[in-house]
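Possible race condition, two jobs.
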Amino acid sequence: MIRWLTFLKNMTNAAGHGSFFPSRAPVATAPGGTVDPQPTADVLTRLQAEHGWFEYSHHTLPISGLTERIRILHLTDVHIRQEDEALSALCHKVSQARPDLVVITGDVVTRGWSEEAVVRFLRALPPARLGRFAIMGNWEYWSGASLDRWRPLLAAHDVVLLHEDWVDLGPIVLAGTDDHLAGQSEPEVLLSRLPRDRPAVMLTHSPAFFPSLAEPPVKLVLSGHSHGGQVRIPGLGALWAPRGTGSYLAGWFEKDGCYLFVSRGLGWSVAPLRLYCPPELAWIDLTPA
């Protein structure tokens, strides 16, 4: 009850930074199928424990021009503060994964984060043959994880920060924007620099900017930021979503043959509370079409 009251109080304070009962575009599963198991429990159990239910969702996306299967582990919105039981549980879950590629779409940290807690999370990331990459989110900027501090901290644990940049991974090109709310992103400039001979995957924190990124050669945009709404009221949907979400609250969306996947993320904002919106570690299998 205390968590719920805290959440409502803080939502009132945050009203100007988002929208209540946000509109949403039609949500679809991945073109190749989605399996998203979610535990069932009563409301009281969910209020107490759902924010710590770390489960994997599985998605398959066929892509034309792809020459081999690539399994991506997509993580986002961890919102690390200090070392605690939830972080320990997450690190244990993540460390068991065996992906080809790890991507983190921003907001690894939030206000009050400690470097020790971040290092624990980064050490838990699994090895990946195509590498491990991250982008900036709004909370990196707002909580003191500036580029000069954040880039070397990630690099020390073999995580490459993509900041308005791209990298050639062989079968795909991987690109990452700056944060659209707190940074200075220029999507049209980044898009103009991408090779056109292979499919590209774009990482961006805020999904509202998907339309400006859904241009060739980008086949997939991965995003977070919204937490899926974090609190969903049965019959009404998400209670609140932050600015930068647009109508892309969670799941899969499509524009002109380019797909967007918005993860529910792993952490929480405002209060340690989730309701009918558990955390999500996403497996995304890219397959040759």
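Job #2 (started ~2 s after job #1):
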Amino acid sequence: MKIFAYALRPYDELGYLDALSRELGFGYDWTPDYPTLDNAHLAAGADMLSIITNPMTPELLGTYRDLGVRGIATRSIGYDHIDLDAARSLGIRVAHAAYPPEGVANYAIMLMMMALRKVKLVLAQAAVQDFSLAGKLGRDISGCTVGVVGTGRIGATVVRHLRGFGCRVLAFDPCPRDDLAGLATYVTLDELLASSDVVTLHAPGLPENHHMIGAAELARAKRGVVLVNAGRGTLVDTAALVDALESGQVGAAALDTIENESNLYYLDRSRDVLPNRDRAVLSAMPNVIVSPHMAFYTGEDVEGMVRGSTSALLAFAAGEETPYEVR
């Protein structure tokens, strides 16, 4: 069985994939480039495809099917970049990855604390030797009510870790978890928004969650709320968020992911004029942190992503079931 990996990073993922190939006995080839119709031929002779968060359109999927690819795994938890209906119609099995939840959960908590303590402004002023205190008064997370939207593995870990800070925790999820009883109080989304000093998003990027935080939701939020998004960019209506930041309804935002970030992150675009005005506007605000979708980026998580997605492809090749398959 042979795997072809696209957009494989030679400085971290390659080492893990190479070690797995020797451990589990499979062949592989790779490219650092994202899959396109122009380079699809590179996968000729491969049974399985490993990708990252790049759009997989029906046309692209059809090309890979014609090349003999029978399964695709994305080295990410999210899989909304893959046209699942097209893949199913073509007989291509699809899988995603899983990795320890602590990396993203703790990054989200870090973003909360950075926003509450105005770290972006403090560091920017310090860089020009302005060490004054005026305008930099922060807030301690321990006295905050934090609303956690989505209590899957990552959201639940956020809840557990936040309790160590002594703050009050609210949660919203269509499927409440019994194991979080006593750690968080489940409420409606409206109740969570109205009562929370900080709102952190950990819901999946499903169609029904598109713009779950829009103008109406932001208007119902507690004035001055801090919004953190280490989930999916599509959860937030960016235009509405910009309006709410400008009006002061949202006091600060810390975003590891934003809308329309494809073809930006994980690439060196330092010499390019970027076609993303929303990112430019958000980045210009002193009370907004925009990090390049890297909450997952720890050694433990990267190894887990490569191992999980690769094990799914091996299961596909053997005609077996795998918990990573997207149904």
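DSSP finds eleven helices and twelve strands in the chain.
Logs attached separately.
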